[in-house]
Amino acid sequence: MSQHSQINQPLLELRDVTVWRGEDPEQRPALDRVSLTIHEGEHTAILGPNGCGKSTLIKTLTRECYPRYQDSTLRIMGRDTWHVDELRSMLGIVTNDLVTTCTQPYLAREIVLSGFFSSVGIWPWHEVTPEMEAKADELLEFVGLTHLQHRLATQMSSGEVRRAVLARALVHQPKALVLDEPTNSLDIAAFRELHRTMRQLASRGVTIVLVTHHLPDIIPEINRVICLKAGRVAQDGTKAEILQSAVLSQLFDADIQIQFAGGHFQMW
Predict the structure, then answer these.
(1) How far apart are alpha carbons 85 and 255 in whole angstroms?
(2) 131, containing H or E segment
(3) 142 in any annotated domain
(4) Strand, coil or helix: what is 135?
(5) Mean of all residue pLDDT scores within the chain
(6) Residue 251, in any domain of the structure
(7) Cβ-based neighbours of 80, under 8 Å, separated by 6 or more
(8) 188, CA 20 to 30 Å: which among 14, 106, 163, 218?
(9) Residue-range definition of the domain harbouring residue 65
(10) DSSP conformation letters of 38-49
């Protein structure tokens, strides 16, 4: 198991969380009595094949899905319930669904500013303050989109939209960032740019929780890997313990070979 010395308070706590995605009682639950704890400052990858429960886990954190049993526990920063404004200052979440939703005729700058209002786009009733404008400028520069701030998302690459959505998630300066398959559909240049941004965030003290099936997504700052399979936690340990051919071959039900170079992992 991962070591928690020099790690702060629990960021996420799940105890016996079971979630069904459907009405069929004979169907296997998407999450099956999942228990895990991730501490603030503990950069973590949640790894598993398609259908293992990764997306359901994220939807449970965002309250799009709810645990079935009353004896289950889901806490964020030690609390069971949150006002939405407080939660946004603690936990930023970037999903593929959100990237798709934001790929509309909105300017990149509008996408970032919309994070202050939990909307997609800016609407007439939104009061954008000078402080919000300044924060948007800062974040557009941070993610490398200042030159595209007045471009429509529908005219941007998928990597550029993803960076705008990432900036949107950062407007409230969250303590942690949950990234769902962050490099999905990115070309090599966009992949490298997103990696650079993730590493910078980790160095600034933002806890990175990476949810993926793609080993190269795992940045060097991540040291803990939790494996999900068939809705359950199959393995939990350090990168050195988990990112081994035998462990990943069992996880993905395939013959997996691992290569490590320059702080990054590849598998085939």
Answers:
(1) 45
(2) helix 130-142
(3) no
(4) helix
(5) 90
(6) yes
(7) 73, 74
(8) 106
(9) 1-77+212-268
(10) EETT--EEEE--
Q: Residue 45 and residue 247: Cα distance in Å, rounded?
A: 15
Q: List strand residue ranges (DSSP E) for 81-124, in order.
A: 91-94
Number of domains in the chain: 1
Is residue 38 in some structural domain? Answer: yes
Q: What is the DSSP string of 12-34?
A: EEEEEEEE-SSS-TTSPPSEEEE
CATH number at residue 242: 3.40.50.300
CA angle 99/107/148 to nearest 5° reads 95
**In the prediction, which pLDDT does 24 show?**
65
| Range list of β-strands (E), the chain | 10-19, 31-39, 44-47, 73-76, 91-94, 176-180, 207-212, 224-229, 232-238, 258-261, 264-267
Question: For the chain, what's the residue count?
Answer: 268
The position carrying tokens 């702060």 is 8
pLDDT digits (tens, 9 = 90+) for 174-193: 999 999 999 988 889 989 99
Q: Does residue 47 form part of some domain? A: yes
